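Worked example 4.2. Below are the chains of a multi-component assembly; read each line carefully before continuing.
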Amino acid sequence: MLSDPYLLIVVTSAVLGLALGFIMHRADFCVTAMFRDYFLFRDATLLRALLLLMACSMLLFELGRQIGLIRIYPFPLLGAPSLASVLGGALFGVGMVLAGGCVFGTLYKLGSGSLLSAVAFLGMLGGSALYAEFHPAWAAFGKATALPTTGITLPQTLGLNPALLIVPALALASVFIWKWYRADQFTRPAVVDGFIQPGKAALLLSVLGLVSYILIGMPLGITTSYAKLGGILEGLVAPAHVAQLAYFQALPLNYTPPLADTAIQGGPGPALDAIAAIQYPLIVGIVLGAAISALRLGEFRIYYKLPAVQYASALAGGVLVGLAARMTPGCNIWHLWGGIPILANQSLLFLLGLVPGAWLGSRVLARFVIR
Amino acid sequence: MKEKRIIVQDLRGQICPACLLITLRNLNEQQAGIKGGQAEFHILTDNRHSTTTIPNAVINMGYAVDVRKEHGHYRIVIAQITGGHTPQSQLDGRPA
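Applying the procedure described above to all two chains together yields the following structure tokens:
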């Protein structure tokens, strides 16, 4: 057992972040584009890669659980399904399209020099901090609209062994994946330097998710620390106000990490706690990994002479994403790459809201922002 | 012989999918000139994703397309299809 559980977490997160940023930049693996391009152009190439990633993660997580590599099931921070997750998903869908990227997408684009992504990132911090203002009311809404079920995952709710749902779901997904693979629909023409095909990127990213689940005890996620960072920034100008907000006192994470023998805690407050140990290195790693990739290709550039409406869209979208990620709670990567592979109820409801939200965001973007 | 008109749209740094949307809108307006060989449409972009989405879209619309890497960005050239020109083959190779 490790005497210091934080060391493994910090090192693992940093390495995962670097790899994530590098791969996502090389493949331009933008989850927002996956939905947006389908709604605007009926281009499903990237959406197919997302389905491959989710199916592969489902297989790896279940295998990991079956052979004992994954001991924490379901992973921490997943809550009861409620209408709050659907509405949060919808708002997240609108926000990520207007911001030009989701939480992870914004980071890898920021690492390659995108100024709009920097604006969106600041918006996300602001939106996350703003949520703290109405957290008690929203938490009450979530409780009032919770589904009358028990269990965090669908198998738990139905009282079934997870494999009884995972195996048929994977069998169905395999039919489509095989068809797309035969038709060469996971690849795009390799026009840019250092390109990683979307299908290959999906497989690599699912392996990184598995490593995170095995060594840290949960899949990839970063948005609680956005509330942390937003609260720290707000605390610079209004420390007394931040100190009295209930949201920043909460410690929703309380678990014993793999290979550790003591429990660690963390929450959205400013402390350097378990959330900070897991998520800060991941955030920094993604930005650095993407920057390394862009610099090696000679593609790191900062452009600032951009239409004002795009700056406004990035900021507004960022605020919406930050708010939505707290209202759900969790971001699209957490739910699509982590929660849905274990059939978490909250993640399924998030997806239910995300799809129409991304459709609406795409319409607004094409009509009012890009002119 | 009249010199070919080059229309350059600098979309570097812009929000996605500005490149594809603006290209499609411009091609509607400039269709006659480009397909008639009097004009070429050039897009400057730093968006890696656009270097595949734009060629895929405009080839289907009957244009020739070429992607070139320049200093820190890509130049996507949309032009008239000329004799012996196979647009798809340009996409299979690396940028010039």
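Take a moment to check your reading of the output against the notes. The mean pLDDT of chain A is 96. The CA atoms of residues 88 and 327 of chain A lie 5 Å apart.
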